[in-house]
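Lab notebook, design round three. We kept the backbone fixed and only want residue identities now. Task for the bench partner: fill in a sequence for the structure below.
Input structure tokens:
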């Protein structure tokens, strides 16, 4: 009799985006003429940059010739990409890394969901609330949490760090003992970003209390303010306590192409039960070598092209396009009377619902009256109640139209 991993059964059945899709589907069936605009799901819409497409074409041709064909690549990624990452994303900011501290992956979702496997079964972790759901769900599935507490809408045994308007939606270091903390900076879903000074206090807390920071900077390219760090390794000493993840999904439109990387500094250690320090780098290397056979060669060449001068220019133009949408959302809704956070260092706007409405009620109202799809804040954690997340990844034309429709509802008049 095959016993299943019962931890999976702790996950509540109604997945956020599936619930949204069902509601939108029902609405559009009942209202076939409604022109629905989606400002909900965080997928990009701009095509891959020409420099990236050229690199992919070239790599495809190489795969078609015996002399240049590539089979299994290194599990950690090809050195051409690992070195381009170090040069393009780190050396430019004064951060030195060794090639073998970089692990190329096939998406930050995979990387961030799997990293918890190298920690002990008694792992105690903290997450921001609201938060990108993968941090939490992956730990639930491994058995690092208690049961789902229906009343509170949280998992027992997890340390939630409330992100509220009062603290600028920036989590503060936990007061109780934890082993790891997931930090997303700039944050999905709130779109807010910690400053260098704020991150410094996190690094200090991690050193003092011996926890490791899993730092997800999937939205790093959207940072516009000079006091927001692009990497946790800009903070002195962070290599001892942090692992950093990045994705090409939002900086280069790779949501359907799939490439990412993890930096596991050799200086970063966990501990054995007897307190002996253990380097995480060889552990993650071992994990990847056993579970993963590398990101496809064609895709790694595509990611390498992101760092070419043309690739940088073209991808930045797309990021700027999305950021213009973010400003349209932020300015348009603020003018209409809403309180809006984020959308300055991030493609996400975190919008307070009017007159204390519940997130799902306001989601329904916008769908029915403005034909605009958003994401209810409660889908990201209990402290998301009273907020909606709007994304800037649509077309400029649709973004303007959607914001105008919401403004026309005159909810504050
Ligand atoms: N991390 C955060 C915070 C995200 O918002 C996302 C995607 O939405 C990911 C990771 C996953 O990125 P990828 O497409 O590389 O799997």
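Proposed sequence:
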């Amino acid at each position: 009799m095959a016993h299943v991993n019962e931890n999976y059964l702790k996950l509540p059945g109604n997945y956020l985006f599936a619930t949204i899709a069902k509601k939108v589907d029902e609405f559009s069936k009942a209202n076939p003429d409604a022109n629905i605009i989606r400002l909900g799901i965080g997928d990009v819409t701009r095509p891959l940059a020409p420099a990236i497409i050229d690199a992919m074409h070239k790599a495809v041709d190489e795969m078609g010739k015996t002399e240049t064909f590539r089979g299994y690549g290194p599990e950690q990624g090809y050195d051409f990409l690992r070195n381009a990452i170090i040069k393009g994303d780190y050396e430019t900011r004064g951060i030195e890394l060794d090639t073998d501290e970089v692990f190329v992956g096939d998406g930050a979702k995979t990387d961030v969901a799997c990293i918890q496997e190298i920690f002990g079964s008694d792992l105690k972790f903290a997450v921001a609330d609201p938060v990108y759901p993968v941090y939490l769900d992956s730990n639930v599935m491994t058995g690092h949490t208690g049961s789902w507490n229906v009343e509170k809408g949280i998992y027992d045994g997890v340390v939630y760090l409330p992100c509220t308007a009062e603290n600028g939606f920036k989590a503060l270091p936990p007061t109780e003992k934890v082993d790891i903390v997931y930090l997303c900076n700039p944050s999905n879903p709130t779109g807010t970003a910690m400053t260098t000074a704020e991150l410094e206090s996190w690094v200090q807390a991690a050193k003092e209390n011996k926890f490791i920071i899993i730092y997800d900077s999937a939205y790093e390219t959207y940072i516009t303010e000079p006091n927001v760090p692009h990497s946790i390794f800009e903070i002195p000493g962070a290599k001892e306590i942090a692992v950093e993840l990045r994705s090409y999904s939002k900086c280069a439109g790779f949501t359907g192409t799939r490439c990412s990387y993890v930096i596991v500094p050799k200086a970063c250690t966990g501990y054995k039960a007897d307190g002996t320090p253990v380097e995480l780098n060889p552990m993650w290397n071992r994990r990847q070598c056993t579970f993963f056979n590398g990101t496809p060669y064609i895709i790694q060449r595509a990611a390498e092209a992101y760092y070419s001068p043309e690739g940088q220019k073209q991808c930045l133009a797309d990021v700027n396009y999305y950021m213009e949408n973010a400003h349209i959302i932020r300015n348009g809704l603020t003018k209409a009377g809403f309180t809006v956070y984020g959308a300055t260092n991030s493609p996400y706007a975190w919008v307070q619902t009017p007159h204390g409405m519940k997130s799902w009620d306001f989601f329904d109202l916008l769908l029915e009256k403005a034909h605009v799809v958003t994401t209810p804040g409660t889908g990201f954690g209990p402290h998301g109640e009273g907020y909606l997340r709007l994304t800037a990844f649509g077309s400029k034309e649709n973004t303007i139209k959607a914001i105008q429709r919401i403004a026309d509802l005159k909810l504050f008049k």
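Keep this in mind before ordering anything: Residues 309-335 form the longest helix (27 residues).
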